[in-house]
């Protein structure tokens, strides 16, 4: 083993800082989710539109934003507004914008898939009873689709929580940022990062299991 | 061979000295705390067609799977063609070659053609040449009425067609006894006929069969013996006519009346 | 400098990074798939002594961000092994181990998705366990597993961009450097985005095609 003196107490002492970072991670994730959901509904609607240019634009949007690495988007918004347009954005704003773009793309796909998974007979029955297209969508199809989408939306949320770790590179003071700063400050990167990993695990894993349970319930009740 | 498929007439005489193919004694099985089989005794003679009936959860499918040891019983003994299936020392793959098995959901291999499905086990298990396996397969597929479906994939066939392929697949191994677990339960009503017809022909050709089924008409016409299984035990057995006309046990009576509530009277 | 000459200077620079991205992704994929198969087998094992740690491995890595592990491996691997390792090596090890958890989950759900009746039918016909698995279960499992595997590979390529934080000169790193150096980040970042799409989009399309094929077969 290379020379390394293990010292876990330094990491333990730094826990309050890490938890502060976790709070920022949470706030960021919640903000992103809140903005992304309505956006994703619009995009999903566009994906299902009968007007070809709208449909294609939405398709391009979702395909591109689901394939681009988050870091590319973060870096794009880090440099471009400032250097090309002289608009300096706050790190938190950069993070929110970049994440909303990707998250809304993933959510749009989830919503679209759920809507399309609803038996067309449902819409048929509603329209046959005299509802307009819009009423049928709002009162019959969408409620069922969103219920089906719930577990998948939960999965996107959990991914989002993990992905927020990237915003540390644009100096947002999330859990990962605090961890990296602390690691360097106390010269104990392994211990600190282990703690950071454990915090992420403790936060994420129960949510994952809860999600599985919801998944089962949704499937059983159908 | 060639026992009459009409029960009640000459059957007892023809079976004067039957040769037992399956002898099950005291079969017990529990899943966790639930006792599914509580001591089942059943003997099936060569050429006999036994229909196993009973309410859901009575253990019929479990018992069938104990016969070819897909499920290992907790207690009791099952001997098939002289081989003790409950003995841990028995070479199970070898013993299963003589037992044909057809399940409720067909379980055809989706990544092979119909012909491939029927040829698979004879080639892999019996080591037959492709040519020999093909000849047998073609003959059997013709026998079940699917001579024109050799190259089709299972998903292209109707449920009834798939089940007939499953029967041909089981016959390809040249079994001594056929086990059929609710072969028509997963089929649309208009498709059950084609499968039951194939089963009736099998019986007419003298195949020893245990069939788990709700199809009373089939049982009345084809079965030599009806065995009622309830709560993991055999509560009654006899010829179909005996059981259906005058059931001795109250539970049998209730089960049959529920089964026949939408049927018209059974004509003899 | 006009756009054309600008690109002529910077495009090869970026593409050099893309090459390294491909190398990193390929190496990590090999480790991830290989290790993932072992872990999946472990999870499906009947023995709790093997299945429990395997399950913990999968749950742990899937509940934590890759970034944390990337940096952790960077510091911890040299110390734990006593070897002096560079960022690329520790990074590939980290990405390999991390993706293995995801691959393992994909393999496990794939195998479990094959109906029990398939194995039953094979055994009932007299096949041994090995014959049943090799001829009947595995071919179907491979088909089932291909689409989600492709998706996991796409995520893997995206995660490779994090290597830039450790100073590895792959595509993302060069994009960041070029953005600062050239003061024309709009062009650089847009081109970078297009390169990433060019790298991953074919695999995404392949995944959808395979997905439809599997759906048709079941």
Task: Supply the key terms.
heterotrimer, A: 222 residues, MetI-like fold, 82% helix, C: 218 residues, mainly alpha, flat
What does it look like?
The complex is a heterotrimer of chains A (222), B (268) and C (218). Chain A has 222 residues and is mainly α. Chain A contains nine helices and no strands. Chain A has helices at 8-13, 15-47, 52-67, 70-85, 91-117, 120-128, 133-163, 175-185, 189-220. Chain A is flat, with a radius of gyration of 21 Å. Chain B has 268 residues and is α/β, with parallel strands linked by helices. Chain B has a domain at 1-98 and 210-261: P-loop containing nucleotide triphosphate hydrolases (Rossmann fold, 3-Layer(aba) Sandwich). Chain B is 35% helix and 24% strand. Chain B is built from ten helices and ten strands. Chain B has helices spanning 11-14, 60-67, 92-96, 114-124, 130-143, 159-171, 189-204, 216-222, 240-245, 250-259, and strands at residues 20-31, 34-45, 49-53, 75-80, 83-84, 99-102, 177-181, 208-212, 225-230, 233-238. In chain B, the strands form two sheets. Chain B has a six-stranded mixed beta sheet with strand order 6-7-8-3-9-10, sandwiched between helices. A four-stranded antiparallel beta sheet of chain B has the order 2-1-4-5, with helices on one face. In chain B, a hairpin with a 2-residue loop joins strand 4 and strand 5. In chain B, helix 4 (114-124) packs parallel to helix 6 (159-171). Chain C is mostly helical and 218 residues long. Chain C has a single domain, classed as MetI-like fold (Orthogonal Bundle). Helices cover 85% and strands 0% of the residues of chain C. The N and C termini of chain C lie far apart (57 Å). The A-C interface holds A 1-2, 4, 63-64, 66-72, 75-76, 79-80, 83-84, 162-166, 168-169, 176, 179-180, 183, 189-190, 193-194, 196-197, 200-201, 204-205, 208 and C 59-60, 62-69, 71-72, 75-76, 78-80, 82, 84, 154, 157-162, 164-165, 172, 175-176, 179-180, 183-186, 189-190, 192-193, 196-197, 200-201, 204.
